[in-house]
Design a protein that fits this description.
single chain; alpha/beta; 7-stranded mixed beta sheet; 13 helices; binds pyridoxal-5'-phosphate
Length: about 350
Amino acid sequence: MSQSPRLLIPGPTEVDSEVARAALRPMIGHRGPEISELLRDVLPRVQSALNTAQSVYPLACSATGAMEAAVRNAAPGPFLHLVCGAFSARWSEIRAACCLPGDDIVVEWGEPILPAQLAEALSRKKYGAVTLVHNETSTGVMNPLPELAAVVRQHDDLLLLVDTVSSMAAVELRLDAWGVDLCLAGTQKAWAMPPGLTLCAVSERALKQSARAAGKGLYLDWQCHEASLRKWQTPSTPPISLLFQLRAALDRAEREGWGARYARHAAMQQLCMGWAERRNFRPFAREGYRSMSVSALEAPGVDLSALLSRLRGRGIIMGAGYGKTKPTVFRVGHMGEWTVDGLEAVLTACDEELGGMAVG
Ligand code: PLP
């Protein structure tokens, strides 16, 4: 175990020293040729990782800012929100805060949204945009994005706005083949970078809608970002050090190979699930819809706050359950730089602590 705490919360996650050091590079101007060279280097590599020819905007905000921008740029809706946890509910909260119309499909926490539920809602009313969280970090559910996208694509001009905050860089995304109109992720999750930069891919169809949207503000207006991107610039000063770090993160991912990276995430999920089964812990998410980057586990009879604080005492920071699940669920964030060996060592430490605890 290293001296610094080991972060296994579902983001922010650990940052490798190669990526951390990249932030120390001497500063460059935000209007000179150097920034254009940097953007011209990193953004096509992100497009390639996401299997898309769509524009990718590097937004200087956390994911919530990019979600709000997406709602404002896709206005007026109405929006249909697929809600299966706290972050998918956030889409709906943002839309309400923007005074735009919308409805929710709500399922129990731990359940995915199924294509038939979406198809049924779309047959009842005409919507302008559907929002989804691919990987619901609060419950450990991974929704069936390709199948849900196929339902949306049966409707002309219906936008599909997807939060891939905790799945991008952990599982393969095929944005163009699936027909995703907006895909966003903050860099502190499976990209294994510090927070502060959100990568946001926007389709032609979504850009057209944004040109018609009223009241979308200026800072995160996609039209402004698109116009700047055509000159390999950004409308306002970008988070330059984070872009240096993105380049380092891309170097690392490409050295490993994207396929190998996704396989490593799947192997960590398998390891975690096998461990849970041996301990009689129950995965919170329904089988077949479990996340590759965060495992949410119910541990009957275990005092979870005591377990998490014992682990913290050993320098291991694991995630508590989110919101209403806090007393009964804990979450293991296995993403980014984490490896099967590293995770195995942590689960062994967890076993040792559980061995020292009275079972309730
Ligand atoms: N969406 C998902 C799926 C998340 O997991 C999170 C944060 O954990 C967010 C959105 C919000 O991200 P931020 O707090 O960086 O704005």
